[in-house]
Amino acid sequence: MATFLYRLGRLAFRRRRLVLPAWIAVLVAAVIGVSGFSSSTTDDFTLPGTQSQQAIDLLEKEFPQASAAGATARVVIEAPGGQKLTSPANKQEVEALVADLRKAPQVASVTDPFTAGLVSSSGNIAYAQVTYAVPQADITPAASDALHQVADKGEEASLKISLGGNAVLEEEQSNAAELIGLLVAAFVLVVTFGSLVAAGLPLVSAVVGVGIALCAITVASSFVDMASNAQTLALMLGLAVAIDYALFIVSRYRTELREGHAPEEAAGRALGTAGSAVVFAGLTVVIALAGLSVIGIAMLTTMGLAAAFAIIVAVLVALTLLPATLGFTGARVAHGRLTTRRVRAEQHGRRPTMGVRWGRFVTRHPWRMLLASVVGLGVLAIPALSLRLTLPDDSMAAPGSTQRVAYDTLSKGFGPGFSGPLTIVVDARDGDDAKTAATATSAMLKGLDDVAAVRPPVFNEAGDVALITAVPSSPPTSQETVDLVGDIREGSDAVEKDSGTQVMVTGTTALNIDVSAKLGEAMVPYLAVVVGLALVLLLLVFRSVLIPIKAAASFLLSVAATLGVLVAVFQWGWLKNVFGVDETAPIVSLLPILLIGVVFGLAMDYEVFLVSGMREAYVHGAGPTEAIVTGFRHGARVVTAAAVIMISVFAGFLLDDIALVKSIGMGLAAAVLFDAFVIRMTLVPAVMTLLGARAWALPRWLDRLLPNVDVEGEKLRRVLAERQRQTRIPAQNGQEPAAPAPLG
Predict the structure, then answer these.
(1) Cβ proximity of 193 and 254 under 8 Å
(2) Is 70 helix (H, G, I), strand (E, B) or coil?
(3) Longest dimension (CA), the chain
(4) Cα(652)–Cα(664) distance, rounded to whole angstroms?
(5) pTM value > 0.85
(6) Quick check: helix, strand or coil at residue 391?
(7) Whose CA is closest to 269, among 339, 190, 204, 326?
(8) Can you tell me the distance from the alpha carbon of 511 to that of 45, in angstroms, rounded to the nearest whole number?
(9) Phi, psi values for residue 550, rounded to 5°
(10) Membrane-spanning residues where (predicted)?
(11) Of 386, 323, 421, 297, nearest to 568 (Cα)?
(12) What SS3 state is found at 100?
């Protein structure tokens, strides 16, 4: 691999006037392509094999007029202060709004608040339930505009109108998070390189790569149902890793220049060494993200594949566009005019770098540093034992948004559980009497403590399937509602035995509970797959048994600590005002799985970039402890800068108002912080110091079986050294220099 990348780096450097315009053309084509397509995203879930999905499939067949799979919207209406909606004037306005809703495009049905009993006991709050004939992803702009026009008409009549449900799309968010992340990244790059030219290259590469990826994802969303947060995750990860990968390559390029190599040769060597690590690191992230598709949830699949695509583009840009731009800057990248006197002294070896000093400190006190790292992360992981999962609903919408106002208004007028009703389906097609079974089911529901209301059963045309709506007393995301769904399913067993019917619980709330349960069950197997992959990949890279085991164990520790922080902040409410968390709630069920996949890839990034330098030194004769310090000399500064950039990019998303985006940003920022500074910079050197030479041990039989992937470019260096030796020998004998030995 290293030899191929060496040739690729030199080719891109030499053909820069072709490579750079080619990438610009791809970016322009992607931007033009976006203008010809309309993006369509969805948060709908399908979960084959669960009771809730089975019930939805039955409702689509037996109650086609109900559009069980169709999008829904709640138009929440509140009377002006001191008035009631039941007054003649206000009632007339509400009925006019309902009439307009029924005429709106794609609407299948609309419930009248006055005839359906959807007016609060106080008389000042009501809502109309709008059911569409199509799922959320197929809602047209005309249908969405019509819904908002009805809301505006109600506002003109002095009524307070708010909209909830999955048919109401989130408003576009500002780009403050991305801008802040880029500004911090620019500052860190300038400090790291001491050069505006060197600092600008990773930023340019990242912008081009992320721009192409996001445009392509937008175009893809016109053909497939894309999760609404897929682009956000792709942007978050694509921006961070693109800057990091470029940082590693540019840093190695500067090192090669300082060692006296010509710019083209330096570009080839940089890509053959740091580029190999970039390919490996990018591959691990891609595999982990693409692996999310095996869980079987479409929303998670599209998020994972979209982010994986952004990583692929970032790697391709780093391997081709970056060496091409280096061809235009030449040796100017190596001149750090903005560096301090201390940094220049470190670069010229007149004083040890901060990384060297830290490495020596850790190797002198390995037991203390190991204990401090494990205990510290272990304490942070304790809250993870209380982890509860849920899916985002209107209660997690941005404060002040129409969805959040609708949720709060409904809770005020009808109770906290009214926004998440449960649909109970009584299937008596193979039973004796649907009416008797429905009556028994209703009686069972009314006997449960956490049920606020039970609506009369509605039967299909054949009279053998009944639909009953139960309103919980607790909010949809509460543990009480989760327990209620379990109680209903347990109580349904008795009804099924007595009547020979099947009783199923469904609805958005029940479906969300089932999805969260499935994701919780999938977390351990997925974690096992990811850890197993880590063991295999690191075994190939470092040709060591103990280093992969150490890396996998430390990865699990950082994931546990990250989940603990998320639970403490978002679920328990610790420091919630500091991080702008408006209301505590269970952790979004997608997040732990995403964290495992993403953090695995990032952890392997730092493991490769740092430990490969240690292995290189050890292979060249350094002692085990000195090899650790040497690895820190070459990699600590770059890894630290890369981690700070990633943390800044991810933490910038804490400014987002959407709970899911905020929690993803905080989770990834915390994960990088723990993995880079606690695991890789502290725990790893402490453990390797204690292991000594055993850290690099590999049984001979296994050594013969494993292929040599040459991530550090060791084989490449031998080939280049031999070529250089063959070139010098004739010159020393007064002969013409021989032609360089071919690579390969």
Answers:
(1) yes
(2) coil
(3) 110
(4) 11
(5) no
(6) coil
(7) 326
(8) 8
(9) -60, -45
(10) 179-199, 206-224, 230-250, 271-300, 306-334, 367-386, 523-542, 554-575, 587-606, 638-655, 667-691
(11) 386
(12) helix
In the predicted structure, residue 93 carries a pLDDT above the cut 90? yes
Q: 314 vs 58, 139, 188, 569, 696, CA distance in Å? A: 45, 33, 20, 32, 32
In terms of Cα–Cα distance, which of 505, 615, 729 is closest to 273?
A: 615
Amino acid at 617: A
Sign of CA pseudo-dihedral 459, 462, 463, 465: negative
H or E segment and range at residue 74:
strand 72-78
Beta-sheet strands, E only, within 422-545 = 422-427, 451-454, 458-459, 465-472, 502-506
Cα gap 467→182, rounded to integer Å: 53
From the list 590, 580, 546, 531, the residue with the least C-alpha distance to 692 is 546
- Report the run of H or E that residue 496 belongs to, with start and end: helix 479-499
- Alpha-carbon gap, residue 431 to 424, rounded angstroms: 16
CB-based contact 186:207 (threshold 8 Å): no
Q: Averaged over 391-401, what is the pLDDT? A: 77
* Four-CA torsion 606, 612, 618, 622, nearest 10 degrees: -60
Asked if 320 and 12 touch (Cβ cutoff 8 Å), the reply is yes
Point out which residues pair with 129 in neighbouring strands.
74
- In sequence order, what are the beta bridge partners of 161? 77
Q: Residue 253 and residue 267: Cα distance in Å, rounded? A: 6
Q: Look up residue 157 and give its two tokens.
A: 């009549």
Q: Where are the alpha helices (DSSP H) in 221-353?
A: 230-258, 263-290, 298-316, 322-329, 341-347
Contact criterion met (CB below 8 Å) for 648 and 185: yes
Q: Is 259 helix (H, G, I), strand (E, B) or coil?
A: coil
- Looking at residues 235-256, what average pLDDT do you find? 86
Return d(Cα 281, Cα 642) in angstroms, integer.
13
Contacts of 550 (CB under 8 A, 6+ apart): 684, 687, 688, 691, 695
3-state SS, residue 405: helix
Q: How many helices (H) and strands (E) does the chain have?
A: 25, 13
Nearest 5°: the CA angle 77, 80, 84 is 75
The string of DSSP codes covering 714-743 is HHHHHHHHHHHHHHHHHHHTTSPPPPPPPP
Q: Do the beta carbons of residue 473 and residue 417 sit within 8 Å?
A: yes
Taking the C-alpha atoms of residue 111 and residue 327, their distance in angstroms, rounded to an integer, is 66
Residues 46, 23: Cα–Cα separation, whole Å: 38
C-beta contacts of 22-31 below 8 A and 24+ residues apart: 23/208, 23/317, 23/320, 23/321, 23/324, 24/208, 26/212, 27/208, 27/211, 27/212, 27/215, 30/211, 30/212, 30/215, 30/216, 30/219, 31/211, 31/215
Tokens of 93: 């306005």
- Encoded tokens for 295: 């869980």
- Both tokens assigned to 315: 């790697």
Supply the pLDDT for residue 342: 57
Helix intervals (H) in 291-433: 298-316, 322-329, 341-347, 354-364, 366-381, 402-414
Amino acid at site 176? A
Q: Cβ distance 645 to 189 under 8 Å?
A: yes
Which structure tokens are listed for 200?
């600008």
Whether residue 232 is predicted with pLDDT greater than 50 in this model: the reply is yes
What is the CB neighbour count within 10 angstroms for residue 92? 11
Neighbours of 341 (CB within 10 A): 7
Q: Decide: helix, strand or coil at residue 244.
A: helix
Kindly give the pairing relationship between strand 226-227 and strand 502-506: unpaired
Indicate the pLDDT class of residue 574, thresholds 50, 70 and 90. very high
The C-alpha atoms of residue 702 and residue 697 are separated, in whole angstroms, by 11
Q: C-alpha distances in angstroms, 111 versus 74, 106, 143?
A: 10, 15, 17
What percentage of the chain exceeds 90 in pLDDT?
26
Element (H, E) at 607: helix 590-619
| Angle, in degrees to the nearest 10, between helices 176-193 and 624-651 | 150
| 205, pLDDT greater than 60 | yes
Residue type, 107: V
